[in-house]
């Protein structure tokens, strides 16, 4: 998948995800917590019994979240990781 297509999909996703209010509590408030949250989702993805396409989508969400963490932009990381966790959750 081309990077421009990936970033376009992310932009569309972020525009749909509700922007958290200023008073909303967030577990991701610093780079260390952000990177740990991304690693937790990576671990969940590794043991998830999901299809190839879903794994690719989760990988894309992880990649974008990792990039946002390194840039110090934690606003959307939590929402993206919630989507990824939902995709990897077992019944």
What is the arithmetic mean of pLDDT? Answer: 79
End-to-end gap? 30 Å
Bin the strand percentage. Answer: under 5%
What low-confidence regions span 5 or more consecutive residues with pLDDT below 50? 14-25
Q: Main sheet? A: none
Question: Which quaternary structure do these chains form?
Answer: single chain
Report Rg: 13 Å
Helix content: 55-70%
Please tell me the total number of domains: 1
Say how many strands there are: 0
Task: Tell me the number of helical segments per DSSP (H or I, 4 or more residues long).
Answer: 4
Q: Based on Cα principal axes, name the global outline.
A: elongated
Q: Return the string of H and E elements.
A: HHHH
Structural class: mainly alpha
Q: Could you explain the architecture of this structure?
A:
- By secondary structure, the protein is an all-alpha fold.
- It has one domain.
- The chain contains 4 helices and no strands.
- The protein has helices spanning 3-16, 31-47, 52-70, 77-88.
- α2 (31-47) packs antiparallel against α3, α2 (31-47) runs parallel beside α4 (77-88) and α3 runs antiparallel to α4 (77-88).
């Amino acid at each position: 998948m081309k990077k421009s297509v990936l970033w376009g999909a992310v932009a569309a996703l972020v525009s749909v995800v509700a922007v958290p209010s200023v008073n909303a509590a967030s577990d991701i408030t610093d780079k260390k917590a952000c990177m740990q949250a991304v690693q937790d989702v990576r671990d969940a993805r590794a043991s998830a019994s999901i299809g190839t396409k879903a794994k690719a989508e989760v990988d894309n969400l992880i990649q974008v979240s990792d990039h946002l963490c390194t840039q110090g932009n934690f606003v959307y990381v939590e929402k993206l990781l919630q989507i990824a966790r939902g995709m990897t959750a077992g019944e």
